[in-house]
Write a structure and sequence with these properties.
Helices cover 27% and strands 20% of the residues. By secondary structure, it is an alpha/beta fold. Helix 1 packs parallel to helix 2. The protein is globular, with a radius of gyration of 29 Å.
Length: 631
């Protein structure tokens, strides 16, 4: 008996080459009597193949392996579950599964077996032709705890024996890759990733070097006046997208900012989410600035600004009671970014409103359960401090969240909110440099793949631009990109074109993508379904460059570039340039080094002398492309 999924999986293995290495170890689960995927893997030259199933089919499986010339396939009994026989010799590089999701409970055991047999470097290829949905859903739900299902294999849809019109959604060939989490830098207690920018603002506005705060008159309605409980310091621009992400805003929310300053956080929220915002501020000049900035951003219709002493708000002021005699939309989220002593003084009022309300609270730099009033006589006397449940999921950005009353922190932290940032906010981020990401062998493989792909597309054509005007209007951007990427001096070859890289280097793509996920310190990929927008081989010759100072990878989430050449040996110049916090910064990357950054961040490459090669990947929320960045 041969299941159709085994045929699908075996033929998919025949069409791809990325897994064919003599050092690769392969295990098939539920191989049956036929063991066709195992036979194909061994005949392709894989060093070690283990075919497993229940004891009663092993003699037939052995007979079939021997009869197909691969008698050295190891045929072994395996009962599914989290505990596997150590004599199998895992973890394995590749796990093969064909039509094994036939029962709900068995599917859970199957997923547990996969987890026990794999490591972070492993891949799992699963085919499923069963029209019965519950077992497949059970397998996916269990496997998703440790794996991401990268894609439905594109080549499947071109298979002559597959009638796409009659296929069920769960039918197909899938590749699973072990799940990874972002690797955040190890920070000392109390440290946050916006500290440098925020400290510079503090220095400018309060400490006297810039004199901005000291220059403000100590009038009644000013940040330097008698009603102020905190000096005016704007929120660091790099912190704003993280604040709004932690808030989990939608268009239905109403965000209040107690001590809103010039309103930059609220205006950003209105722009991104289309939600109503309310800013209360004791400094009249700040509100003049806020109204002007909201008008310039064209979000005035979403903004409400009130001159108010936040220490004198009325009872139920955050629950619909009039403020300054005005009815304001009650908040679903309250933000306050003030110093610790101000937060400590405001805490009792916030707590009384929060207990009776239905809003969450965000604070910056200081958390409500730890803030101290150092201007009081007994700053460490915290017996009267209200009990605050605080989520520290975003503490590395200096952002703390109190969930709505009655919602446990553990429950709140199960929610995932995508990060949204503007180009200006992307520009103030610092790129992540990953030294030695690519090994010598991987670099050589990339170079060979890149040159093979370039040869497949033909020689660079400096006259190709003339053909751009012959294409339909809706294809112009794509055609123009093809022409620009086919010029001498700087040639760009799309390895993902027509699924080519899926077939020949899926493992390299997965490794590259995994490194991007692991080093996503901003959380740009979290709470998103993302795909590879572009996987590119760049070949710079003398004179080649990317000199546009406003160059951005617009529409993508993250971009990573890894060097395949060495400065001083293969080329000179070609520094990688970014703008970090408005400052132009040049970086020299060594062979095998990579640099990861938000795609909307400005970047370019200075002019090259010699021969510079690199590999670049962009991730986005659009579908996986099969031509260039546009299609």
């Amino acid at each position: 008996l041969v299941f159709p999924g085994a045929i699908m999986l075996a033929e998919d293995l025949e069409r791809t080459t990325w897994w064919r290495r003599s050092s690769c170890s392969v295990i098939e689960l539920g191989a049956g009597v036929a063991g066709i995927p195992s036979i194909v893997a061994r005949r392709a030259g894989v060093g070690r193949v283990v075919a497993t199933d229940m004891a009663d089919v092993l003699s037939g499986l052995t007979f079939n392996c021997v009869g197909n010339g691969v008698g050295d396939v190891e045929v072994k009994e395996l009962c599914w579950g989290p505990e596997v026989d150590k004599s199998l010799g895992g973890p394995f590089d590749l796990v093969l599964i064909a039509d094994c999701a036939f029962d709900v409970e068995a599917s859970k055991l199957l997923a547990a077996t996969v987890e026990a047999l794999t490591a972070v470097h492993s891949f799992v290829i699963v085919s499923n032709t069963s029209g019965i949905l519950p077992p497949w859903e059970s397998f996916v739900e269990t496997a998703a705890r440790g794996f991401t299902i990268e894609r439905v294999h594109p080549s499947l849809w071109d298979h002559p024996d597959v009638n796409v019109a009659t296929m069920q959604p769960q039918e197909g060939v899938y590749i699973l890759v072990p799940r990874v989490d972002a690797v955040l830098p190890v920070l000392p207690s109390g440290h946050d990733l916006c500290e440098n920018e925020q400290h510079a603002l503090l220095d400018s506005f309060v400490m006297g070097h810039g004199g901005a705060e000291k220059a403000r008159p100590a009038e009644e309605w000013s940040a330097a006046g008698p009603m102020s409980i905190s000096p005016y310091v704007p929120c660091a621009q790099s912190r704003i997208p993280q604040v709004l992400r932690a808030a989990g805003l939608t268009a239905e929310d109403v965000l209040w900012d107690l001590g809103c300053g010039d309103g930059r956080v609220l205006i950003s929220a209105a722009l991104r989410y289309g939600c109503n915002v309310v800013g209360l501020e004791v400094d009249s000049q700040c509100l003049v600035d806020a109204r002007r900035l909201a008008e310039e951003a064209r979000v005035s219709h979403l903004c409400h600004w009130e001159l108010a002493d936040i220490m004198a708000l009325p009872v139920s002021g955050l629950r619909g009671a009039p403020v300054n005699g005005k009815s304001l939309p009650p908040p679903t989220c309250v933000l306050t970014f003030i110093t610790g002593h101000g937060l400590a003084r405001l805490s009792p009022y916030l707590h009384s409103e929060w207990v009776e309300g239905s809003f969450r609270i965000l604070t910056c730099v200081e958390a409500l359960d730890e803030c101290l009033d150092f201007e009081s006589g007994a700053p460490f006397d915290t017996e009267d401090r209200p009990p605050w449940p605080v989520s520290r999921r975003h503490a590395h950005w200096g952002v703390f969240c109190v969930p709505p009353h009655g919602v446990a922190v553990s429950v709140w932290e199960q929610k995932e909110f995508p990060l949204k940032w503007t180009q200006d906010e992307a520009d103030v981020t610092a790129p992540v440099v990953i030294p030695g990401l690519l090994s010598k062998d991987v670099i050589e493989r990339y170079l060979q793949l890149g040159e093979d792909a370039a040869a497949r597309e033909g020689a660079a054509d400096s006259e190709a631009w003339q053909s751009v005007f012959d294409v339909p209007e809706d294809q112009f951007c794509s055609a123009a990109e093809d022409v620009m990427h086919n010029l001498q001096g700087h040639r760009v070859v799309h390895l993902h074109k027509d699924g080519w890289s899926d077939a020949v280097c899926f493992d390299l793509m997965a490794h590259f993508r995994r490194a991007m996920q692991q080093n996503d310190v901003w959380g740009a990929l979290q709470a998103r379904q993302f795909h590879v927008r572009s996987f590119e081989y760049h070949r710079y010759d003398t004179g080649g460059s990317v000199l546009d100072e406003n160059h951005r990878d617009q529409g993508s989430l993250l971009t990573m570039s890894a060097m395949l050449s060495q400065e001083g040996e293969n080329f000179f110049g070609a520094e990688f340039v970014t703008w970090d916090g408005g400052q132009r910064k040049e970086r020299r990357l060594g062979k095998g080094d990579a640099i990861l950054f938000p795609s909307e961040k400005r970047h370019n490459v200075k002019q090259v002398e010699g021969d510079r090669r690199c590999i670049i990947m962009e991730l986005w929320e659009g579908p996986a492309n099969r031509r260039n960045r546009h299609q």
